[in-house]
Specification:
With 96 residues, the protein is an all-alpha fold. The chain has a domain at 11-71. It has helices spanning 11-22, 28-35, 39-49, 52-63. α1 (11-22) packs antiparallel against α2 and α1 crosses α3. The two termini are 26 Å apart. The relative contact order is 0.17. InterPro entries: CHP03643. This is TIGR03643 family protein. It holds the Pfam family DUF2805.
Length: 96
């Protein structure tokens, strides 16, 4: 999928994408694996779904967060799944 479309995702999926985008340790690659959205698509979704001020706060947070981009991560952080990930509903990533 190359661009975000509200018709493609359910409300539950949109909520989960927003939640993942706000989490510091969840990189954009994890969102791409689960939902097929590139970083630019996540930005479009966030801008459309959030209040403007919330979107601005999120963008500032993402720009300063080294864990949102796998290439910028500190060595030693090699996963994007929490130990509690199994308990999160609608999780499409299987436990390895």
């Amino acid at each position: 999928m190359t661009s975000y479309s509200t018709n493609y995702f359910t409300i539950v999926e949109i909520d989960r994408i927003i939640e993942m985008a706000w989490e510091d340790r969840t990189p954009f690659d994890a969102i791409k694996i689960q939902f097929g959205l590139a970083e630019a698509d996540v930005k479009v979704l966030m801008k459309k779904e959030l209040k403007f001020k919330s979107y601005v706060l999120w963008r500032k947070r993402v720009e300063n967060c080294k864990t949102k981009h796998v290439a910028k991560r500190v060595e030693g952080i090699d996963r994007f799944k929490c130990n509690l990930q199994r308990s999160i509903s609608n999780n499409k990533i299987s436990k390895r």
